[in-house]
């Protein structure tokens, strides 16, 4: 039997810091301290060769439980639906109208941060209601 491994989730994006800061707000994550020897992430970034400046950014769970999330700049834009997406668990244990109200409340909180609403999928005989959204660069995620 193998042991459980820690993992990192990596997003390809055009503006790593912007997308990372959006997800910090969504998940309650934080930007970790700058690397040793640097007073800030801005100072660290300025020390890099010009082509590497702004190429990556990180956010972490302040409790240390959730995975580290890394955002890396890539030259190409998003073209098709994500093969992987995050389900942000905001209505766990809720059903019916109470669940939909919790999903709608979180959607309302995220819209001013730059998220966009795609569609509300109402419960059926197999799945609970969820709300499909997009982050600031168009990556799909669900409020669940």
Mean pLDDT across the residues is 92
Report the sheet-strand fraction.
15-25%
The low-confidence runs, each spanning 5 or more residues with pLDDT under 50, are: none
The structure class reads: alpha/beta
Give the count of helical stretches.
3
Task: Report a brief summary of the structure.
With 144 residues, the protein is an alpha/beta fold.
Give a description of the structure.
The protein is of the alpha/beta class and 144 residues long. The protein folds into 2 domains: 8-73, no CATH class; 86-143, no CATH class. 23% of the residues lie in helices and 24% in strands. It is built from 3 helices and 7 strands. The protein has helices at residues 16-27, 41-46, 96-110, and strands at residues 8-13, 56-59, 68-73, 86-88, 116-121, 130-134, 140-143. The protein has a 4-stranded mixed beta sheet with strand order 4-7-6-5. It has a 3-stranded mixed beta sheet with strand order 1-3-2, covered by helices on one side. 19% of the residues are buried. The model has no long low-confidence stretch (mean pLDDT 92).
List its traits.
144 residues, alpha/beta, 2 domains, four-stranded mixed β-sheet, 7 strands, 24% strand
